[in-house]
Design goal:
Layout lengths: L7 H31 L7 E6 L13 H11 L5 E13 L2 E10 L11 E4 L11 E5 H8 L8 E4 L2 E9 L5 H5 L5 E6 H7 L7 E5 L8 H12 L7 E5 H45 L5 H33 L17 H17 L7 H38 L3 H25 L8 H18 L2 H7 L12
Parallel strand pairs: 3-8, 5-7
Antiparallel strand pairs: 1-9, 1-10, 2-3, 2-6, 2-9, 4-7, 5-8, 6-7
Helix pairs in contact: 1-7, 1-10, 1-11, 1-12, 7-8, 7-10, 7-12, 11-12
Length: 476
């Protein structure tokens, strides 16, 4: 006699599928919220321009302090504006020395970034000509072995800088992935320009008034750059309103896939139920008139139609939850789909942009955005191409083993709730915003539950048990 096959491998595959589907939902909702947190007071309501500082770009294309002041006082006076430059040197306190990233910034920089001051204050406009510094916790511990250092002095480029504030470290997943391995010190940009003769202001950040996707923000910034004699083509411009929208759109696409699975399954059940009602009515009408059938089976007909309407209502509700307007950047939309020259130019521009970016050093905010986008892209890819295949494969294996529906349903529900709870705890551990959207969780739960019911063949059994056809065959 052939020994019974163990069900553990099938349950393991099923569990892995549910784990990927649930965790990707929890993590995906957290990433856009983290992007907003990293943007400081202005969150994603900002646009940035960073000089493409490679060998192909003239140094005259970088920003000068005078041009930044012109923008702040005249061309962009109605918008909050921050600018920065980056260097690297050794920070010294007595006999202690540590490598440090030096950011020369203006007093508005903390409005565009998550600084998390632990003590003291950030740089002010009145300190533009003073040798003051804000250091982060990493540098404070490396030089002083503690963070109670406001009022003390460190040495940069052979000069003394008074510490006026201590910034907290980003201990989240994103902070860990973007950690350079040494501390950061913020000093007035004017002082860094004096100390680093070859340095340039390389990036500016502008508060945006328009949260839409019309390109108005980029037009405002490009006009401002032209007003100070700079060619916008020499800068990498990123509208964080659009960046946040594209990141959120991947969550909507993931929800769409889960909801589409549930809708297709419900549509299959609806089609079967309508065919059963139709089939049974035809059988009744062979030996009865319409009035006799309605009189004798009125309650059953009403209940049957109520079930049909309920299924339709669930489908409409799911469609309302998952529908969204797909956003594609206007520059990537051709006037005609078969316009070969448009696609050729698009590829050519992409290659040229890659060549122009060779040697380009992204500022800290853009590095964080790139890490978030990479995680979000992989999160969506794994959800669609790993989570769903594993879940369906595990379910198929369990079906072959003939396990009871109730046992599989209980396993799926309990495991999903466990992953949801553990996922929330894990987000808290890696310091990511725990954003749990009820609609998203319901979509995943409904798609998993309905798939289990139908794949186990119980949808047909439910129809067979319908009182209309207790003594009839269910149509295929």
């Amino acid at each position: 006699m052939k020994p019974a096959q163990s069900a553990y491998p099938a349950y393991l595959i099923l569990a892995l599928g549910i784990l990927v589907l649930t965790w990707s939902t929890v993590l995906g909702s957290s990433l856009p919220a983290k992007l907003a947190d990293l943007g400081g007071l202005h969150k994603t309501n900002k646009i940035t321009a960073t000089w493409l500082s490679n060998s192909h770009q003239p140094e005259a294309a970088s920003f000068s302090l005078e041009k930044m002041r012109q923008l702040a006082q005249y061309d962009l006076r109605d918008n909050d504006l921050a600018y920065a430059m980056e260097a690297s040197t050794s920070a010294v306190y007595q006999k202690n020395q540590s490598q440090a990233q030096v950011l020369g910034v203006n007093d508005r920089y903390d409005q565009f970034h998550q600084i998390n001051l632990r003590s003291g204050c950030f740089l002010t406009s009145g300190q533009e000509n003073q040798q003051v510094a804000v250091i982060d916790e990493d540098l404070a511990r490396a030089l002083f072995q503690n963070c109670n250092v406001v009022g003390l002095e460190i040495e940069l480029y052979g000069r003394k800088f008074k510490i006026v504030g201590v910034a907290g470290n980003d201990c989240s997943l994103i902070g860990t992935l973007t950690d350079k391995g040494y501390g950061t010190v913020y000093i007035p940009v004017k002082k860094l320009l004096e100390l680093e003769a070859d340095s340039r202001i390389t990036s500016l950040e502008l508060e945006t008034k328009d949260a839409g996707t019309t390109g108005r923000n980029a037009a405002v910034l490009e006009t401002a750059l032209a007003s100070i004699g700079q060619d916008p083509a020499n800068y990498k411009i990123i509208d964080y309103n659009v960046a946040g929208l594209l990141m959120e759109q991947e969550n909507l696409l993931r929800n769409f896939v889960a909801g589409a699975v549930a809708i297709v399954i419900i549509f299959g059940l609806l089609r079967r139920k309508i065919r059963v009602i139709y089939h049974c009515c035809r059988l009744r009408l062979r030996d009865k008139y319409w009035s006799e059938m309605i009189k004798g089976d009125a309650a059953r007909l009403v209940l049957g139609m109520a079930e049909v309407l309920a299924l339709v209502a669930v489908m409409l509700l799911l469609w309302k939850l998952i529908r969204f307007t797909l956003y594609i950047p206007p520059e990537n939309i051709p006037d005609e789909l078969i316009d070969v020259s448009f696609w050729a130019d698009l590829i050519k521009n992409g290659i040229q942009a890659g060549l122009q970016s060779a040697g380009y050093v992204a500022p800290p905010g853009e590095v964080q955005l790139n890490v978030l986008n990479t995680i979000q892209n992989w999160n969506l890819f794994l959800n669609i191409f790993l989570g769903w295949p594993l879940f369906l494969l595990g379910l198929y294996q369990i079906k072959l083993l003939g396990k009871k529906l109730l046992k599989v349903e209980v396993f799926c529900v309990v495991f999903m709730l466990a992953v949801l709870s553990l996922g929330t705890i894990l987000l808290w551990i890696i310091k990511m915003p725990p954003v749990i959207e009820t609609g998203e969780v319901l979509l995943v739960f409904s798609s998993i539950f309905l798939t289990v019911v139908t794949k186990k063949g119980q949808g047909t059994h439910l129809l067979k048990s319908w009182y209309f056809c207790m003594d009839r065959n269910v149509p295929n």
